[in-house]
Design goal:
mainly alpha
Length: 79
Amino acid sequence: MPVAVGSYGQTQPSCFDRVKMGFMMGFAVGMAAGAMFGTFSCLRIGMRGRELMGGVGKTMMQSGGTFGTFMSIGMGIRC
């Protein structure tokens, strides 16, 4: 959506800023989903302690990076 220019010289965010924002939003959503799915899958196969935390963290980073990448591509297309 276009942002109106106000009396204080406000301008629209640049395309790069939009892509960064898309990546950050996607990364946050992916991390949350990765925490849920990673915890469930690691507990299901019997991981405990340090192994559980490593598995959940790895799943969170993977899903966050993947979803963030696709969200940034989508925001880049909209520029």
